[in-house]
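Okay, is this right?
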Amino acid sequence: MTLLTYQVFKTVADIGSFHKAADILGLTPSAVSHSVSALESELGFAVLNRSKSGVTLTNYGEHLLPYVNAVLNADESLHQFIAETNGLKQGKVKMAVFSSVCTNWLPEILSSFHKKHEGITIEVFQGTYDDVSYWLKNGVVDLGFLSVSAAKDIPIEPLFRDPLLCVLPKGTKKSGKTMTIEEMRTHQFVTQRESTDADIQNFLKENKLDVQSHYHVVDDLATVRLVEKGFGICLMPELVMNDIPYEVDTYPVEPAAARIIGIATMNPNFMAPAVRTMYRYIIDYYKRI
């Protein structure tokens, strides 16, 4: 098996199409198909399901992909090390982010980083906490922003404390500067899936808030829009509310709570030079804000 074989398999798995993978790799569809077939013949098992609707990973393929990613990442690390040794600062960093980091911080980070390190390419993947964790564990990305509570067993460097706020329809609360647990108990909630707001779910559980909700959404904008229209209240990190255009009221929760945002990587002691450069840049960046 060659690195090209691994790259073909990864690209087809990511894209779900032999033809599209061929376009990306600059190969013919028949060459891509032959490469995958040769891989399967050498392995002794099928790695892809072929159908008219597209291509998907078999169970064996799903287990193989993280190892293929590790090989390709190691090859990238080797090339970066050689370039660094020869005095060249170049390479690629694959980074995962969740929504509020993507909109609030990422543009400035990418812009300022590129001015200092023009030879390093950054590839960005946006998703939920669960997506970021999956991508990190399976070698799809090198670095990922996560909340500390969502990281679990993934090594993470804490960076930023993001307070939790209670969001209410405008004019709902008549007095007080905070929103207490007892006050929250009297309201219907608009909630999100646990993969989207693990820290909020933890806050609810820790304070024995058995919330009643008929609205289970994923998108932050949709959640707050429902609150604005009077369908309930919700909890949101302060950073999220920076992106919200709707007319609602926000109050710090009591007891005070926050999510801790950090930068995570599976191997903090073994990173490719470009990845290490970005990792250190992000840590220094948050020391300044």
The longest strand covers residues 156-169. DSSP finds 13 helices and twelve strands in the chain.
